[in-house]
Design a protein that fits this description.
It contains 14 helices and seven strands. By secondary structure, it is α/β, with parallel strands linked by helices. The strands form two sheets. The chain has a five-stranded parallel beta sheet, with helices on both faces. A two-stranded antiparallel ribbon has the order 1-3. It is globular and about 65 Å long. The protein has two domains: 155 residues, Rossmann fold; 127 residues, Up-down Bundle (Zinc Finger, Delta Prime, domain 3), CATH 1.20.272.
């Protein structure tokens, strides 16, 4: 997997961009949205290469090569923080107003844009609406729902979706023939680049599946499972839970005719009210949307798994955007 490989499901987006440029209609602010692992960062790198006149392939490639250039700025979440702050954005705005070093304009990538604080996002609005000179701002967001409407209205949105399954599997098999790509792709929510990481974690996924099934059927203690899962990355666990419950909802909706939800036995799934599955997913997604460190991970996992052990009988939808006070630190 060391050789660069064309991300072929991005070819039509790249072609559309080149056409816009040839007609002089390229936007100055772009918002790349879509689930993690569909190639948004590769697309962002390719866009700034095109804008700054850096040699680039016809289509974005994998793996993404770190790009450095005098007229390019990257804004990311600091290692010791959970959000992109206003000072970072103010520094970016000041830099974008400076004269281009190499004469092809300025470019910046904010990744992830949905990690900006409200003040940081507000300080960016004027630059998005009226950039200085020949500038291109690229915002990358895995969770578009976390961005304010004012950001949406000032950007050209490019939504990147996972390719058809057969195309994704063919692409992945060319990277590493004979691997368990169908299972990895399922675990990654159909996103090919996320499937590459999922392939390396199949054993972990399988162990979590056994734990989940054991808790759901009452064979395993939710407290013991919470202790094991607490040692894993919290975002990874919540993402896994969200996908697992989504598959369970699909299976529950069609009577088990389609979908693979081995994590919940049919007999257990039939006893669960589908409305409570939606409520459970809503709770998980709200936790996914909260910044790290804002809740006690052990208590959070225990609460979720105890609900599962009880067949979700006590799972009720709380008000949208409501807090989870019993889980807060």
């Amino acid at each position: 997997m060391s050789n660069l490989k064309e991300i072929n499901w991005l070819a039509s987006i790249a072609e559309n961009w080149r056409e816009r440029v040839s007609l002089g209609r390229q936007p100055h602010a772009v918002l790349l949205t879509g689930p993690a692992g569909v190639g948004k960062r590769a697309m962002a790198t390719w866009l700034v290469q095109q804008h700054l006149g850096i040699d680039s392939p016809a289509t974005p490639q994998y793996p993404v090569v770190a790009l450095e250039h005098a007229d390019l700025r990257w804004v990311r979440t600091p290692e010791d923080k959970q959000a992109i702050g206003i000072d970072q954005v103010r520094e970016l705005v000041a830099g974008m107003a400076m004269t281009s070093y190499e004469g092809n304009g300025k470019a910046a990538v904010i990744d992830p844009a949905d990690a900006m604080t409200n003040n940081a996002a507000n300080s960016l609005l004027k630059t998005l609406e009226e950039p200085s000179g020949n500038a291109l701002l690229v915002l990358v967001a895995d969770r578009k729902g976390h961005l304010p409407a004012t950001i949406f209205s000032r950007c050209q949105r490019i939504d990147i979706v996972p390719p058809p399954e057969d195309q994704a599997l063919k692409w992945l098999d060319q990277l590493h023939p004979g691997s368990s790509w169908p299972e990895a792709l399922r675990l990654a929510g159909k996103a090919p680049l996320a499937a590459i990481a999922a392939l390396e974690q199949l054993e972990t996924h399988a162990a979590m599946g056994r734990d989940f099934a054991g808790v759901a059927s009452g064979r395993v203690s939710p407290i013991d499972v919470a202790s094991r899962w607490q040692k894993l990355d919290t975002a990874f666990v919540l993402d896994w839970l969200a996908r697992t419950v989504q598959y369970a909802i699909v299976r529950s909706s069609n009577g088990g005719k389609y979908g693979n939800t081995a994590e919940i036995d049919d007999s257990v799934l039939k006893r669960m009210d589908r409305r409570n599955l939606f409520c459970y997913l809503d709770t998980i997604n709200r936790l996914r949307g909260q910044p790290g460190g804002s809740f006690n991970v052990q208590l959070m996992l225990e609460g979720l798994l105890i609900d599962l052990a009880d067949g979700l009988a006590n799972c009720y939808r709380s008000s949208p955007g409501g807090e989870l006070p019993e889980l807060m630190v």
